[in-house]
Amino acid sequence: AKASGKASWARFEPRMHSEVVNHARLGSELHNAIIRHELELAYQPVFDLVTGLMAGAEALVRWRHPVRGLVSPADFIPVAERSGLIVPLGSWVLREACEQLAKWHAEYGAAAIRSINVNVAARQLRESGFVDEVAAVLSDTGLIPANLVLEVTESSVLDGRQVRDTLQALHELGVRLALDDFGTGQSSLSLLRAFPVDVLKLDKSFVDGICDGEDRGRLAVAAAVAQLAEYLDLYAVAEGIETAAQAERLREMGYRLGQGYFMAKPLPPAEMAELMIRTVLP
Ligand code: C2E
Ligand code: CA
Ligand code: CA
Ligand code: CA
């Protein structure tokens, strides 16, 4: 069943609203967004930089506001975090993304796309039922834990004892943990010893600088993170790759996995399906 990917993308206007938003109003509107089905997920493929195959995808939430149009998560995720709405919103994202991956596995096989990355906010990790929720979603969708990569940031990880226990329990469940925006925090190295991390996601800000002859600092961080991952037996992923030269350079440095506009922007499910059909079927 070949979906008409381009047509469905008509629902997704390329123009993001960067207006100054009224956060209080946004918060109350967000409250109804889930109920009114105004949230959608876009999926940005993660590619194997050596084979060129799609390894997975990151689920990125989109809010199609009836009046404002497409609202960027950069505008509403912070609002959702402050109000606590991130908890039900995050639950919806987790379940929707896992259901989508299960559908893709059923249609195109697990070789077409192995795993799904889901961003998890600090507030979600602090919920006492989070591990049970993840286990329930996996069991309901029939996915194995290794199919799920939870992306957490350094600051949310450093939230205390309970969060550490939660991450440990998720790790024991077999879910993979990725440290997002890696390299931007204060204590990245000590953190790696205290937490069961599986994936390091090099922040885009370092990728931006690697082909810029002037900027040795960012190049050095990018190279060091790749080596660190190798020593610690972790996966290294580079995000925000925008040029062929960056992709090539990162591959040489040892990045096996990469994500960025150069390979693919975040896509609606129908366009993901087209990509999988093209890759898997001859
Ligand atoms: P992030 O997790 O660091 O996600 C990467 C962001 O970089 C995404 O922006 C993606 O579209 C963008 N990006 C990817 N490749 C490129 C590139 O080559 N060039 C440029 N300029 N940008 C690129 P997006 O989708 O707007 O999401 C922004 C942030 O919102 C995310 O940053 C994440 O922190 C948050 N977010 C998105 N969805 C969720 C969610 O479901 N839950 C939570 N808690 N946070 C989310
Ligand atoms: Ca992320
Ligand atoms: Ca990131
Ligand atoms: Ca980032």
TrEMBL record:
Domain EAL: 23-280
Superkingdom per UniProt: Bacteria
Full-protein positions shown: 489 to 770 of 774
Keywords, alphabetical: Membrane, Transmembrane, Transmembrane helix
Protein name as annotated: Diguanylate cyclase (GGDEF)-like protein
Keyword Transmembrane helix: yes
Record carries keyword Transmembrane: yes
